[in-house]
Design goal:
single chain, 0% strand, mainly alpha, 7 helices, elongated, 434 Repressor (Amino-terminal Domain)
Length: 107
């Protein structure tokens, strides 16, 4: 699901109008409309955090759904070598498989 659909679905689940959500997140209604229609990309981390608070959603998940890596995550990755190594191993396994060779479709 694209971010614009995700944010619109959340708003509708909470039975909020665009005007109400925009006011709660301290953004302009036309801007929210453009985000929901896909005419604007996902907003900044600060705006995503405000939208998450207004929608009672996890702010980190909202940032990730917006296609971004939360700054707090970046800070931890840069400060903690074990976290970096863990993520690095996960990425390599997903991308290359257990043997370290690239995954590809054999058909």
């Amino acid at each position: 699901m694209e971010f614009n659909q995700y944010i619109r679905n959340l708003r509708l689940e909470k039975r909020l109008s665009q005007v109400e959500l925009a006011e709660m997140a301290n953004i302009k209604t036309p801007y929210l409309s453009k985000i929901e229609s896909g005419k604007e990309p996902a907003p900044s981390e600060a705006v995503l955090i405000r939208l998450a608070a207004a929608l009672n959603e996890d702010p980190y998940w909202m940032i990730v759904k917006g296609g971004k890596v939360p700054n707090d995550f970046k800070d931890i990755i840069l400060q903690d070598e074990q976290v970096y190594n863990y993520i690095h191993r996960k990425v390599r396994r997903n991308k290359f498989g257990e043997e370290g060779t690239p995954k590809y479709d054999q058909h």
